[in-house]
Design brief:
Blueprint (H helix, E strand, L loop, with lengths): L17 H8 L4 E2 L6 E3 L8 E7 L12 E4 L1 H5 L5 H4 L11 E7 L14 E6 L5 E9 L2 E9 L5 E6 L4 E5 L9 E2 L5
Parallel strand pairs: 4-6
Antiparallel strand pairs: 1-3, 2-3, 3-5, 5-6, 7-8, 7-11, 8-9, 9-10
């Protein structure tokens, strides 16, 4: 199986709309209709993951009720990753409180006895105007990451390192050596 393909899942993709976002993350989240859902395998387990852009002025409120983890990889890069503090920051110039919503294994059946379960994350404070999924090589592994491009044309990568979310700006000293483009087949 290729590092960039997902394990086959039977049936059509479920509809990703405002009702889906509210059912998975809570009523304080609204889906950004300008950015389409993205699909990839961000955790490298072979199952399709879902990436959405949404807004919420209170991302921590529903965390325990809807079983997701809030993370701030951007501010963690600069040394302040405590979401209870950084959720008060406003990095989006339009004041929208945009965040990236990630669902690992989003089409897996919800079963408590399964070894693989759905994991959900809300990534706050990452500056971006557009997002996409890109394939990269991290150390000796091929991974997929979220590429975030902001209004200053800064290209940054948001990726799952196996334990936590990390942010890396391309072009900043030290970060360019972290990633390599994967070999072409």
């Amino acid at each position: 199986m290729s590092a960039y393909s997902s394990a086959p899942v039977q049936g059509p993709r479920p509809v990703v709309d405002a009702a889906y976002v509210a059912s998975q993350f809570g009523p304080s989240f609204t889906l950004d209709p300008k950015i389409l859902p993205l699909y990839g395998d961000l955790d490298g387990d072979g199952y399709e993951d879902l990436v959405l852009v949404g807004t919420s002025s209170t991302p921590l409120v529903s965390e325990s009720q809807f079983h997701y983890k809030t993370a701030d990889p951007y501010d963690a890069y600069f040394g302040t990753g405590d979401t209870h503090i950084t959720s008060q920051f406003s990095l989006h110039f339009d004041g929208s409180s945009r965040c990236i919503l990630v669902v690992f294994g989003w089409r897996l059946p919800e079963r408590k006895d399964s070894s693989k379960t759905v994991s959900k994350f809300v990534l706050i404070n990452t500056p971006f105007d557009s997002v996409s999924i890109v394939g990269l090589r991290l150390k000796k592994r091929n991974i997929q990451a979220i590429e975030a491009v902001d209004r200053t044309s800064l290209h940054a990568l948001v990726f799952w390192d196996g334990r936590r979310w990390r942010w890396s700006a391309q072009g900043m000293e030290g970060d360019d050596d972290l990633f390599k483009m994967p070999p072409q087949n």
